[in-house]
Amino acid sequence: MHNTCSKEDIIKYVDDAEEFAKLPNGPVKEAVKELKTLKTSSNGQYDQFLDDFENGVDLSKLGSGGVKAWEVAINSPIKTDVSWLTRIDNWLADGADAAKDTALKYLPQVIIDIENKSLQSSYYDQALENRVPATWKGKWVKNPELLLEEIPIKDRYWLKEST
Known about the structure:
Layout: E1 4-5, H1 7-15, H2 17-22, H3 27-40, H4 45-52, E2 57-58, H5 59-72, H6 82-93, H7 99-104, E3 110-113, E4 118-121, E5 137-140, H8 144-149
Parallel strand pairs: 4-5
Antiparallel strand pairs: 1-2, 3-4
């Protein structure tokens, strides 16, 4: 079996007992077990998981802990980043009650573009967008995910593997 499972592969392993039985014991089988549990809950998260990873996911890296970490990060922009999900899983394993807060606190809340003299902020407490020089443009972005979309992928430090 290849490492990356497509949406169709996941559905096959979750729904077909014979296909599930063929999986060797290990992280892939553990992830599928956790997805079976997710499917039986009536909150629709299984379908959301399939949609989030519609282009496939390496279940051998994700494992059951990664599925649980995905549930923690479900409303954040890091929910499909397996390296972050692994980190969250480690925090959960270490007993971190606030794993979601820990992960999200490393995401940027302010973008300063010096060349274009602009500041965008999703930081809610200080109204930073109103504290820019007169020749600058300040903007408050209510949805932090929209702010993150403004950052080029090459500059998204939170998506890079930790060393």
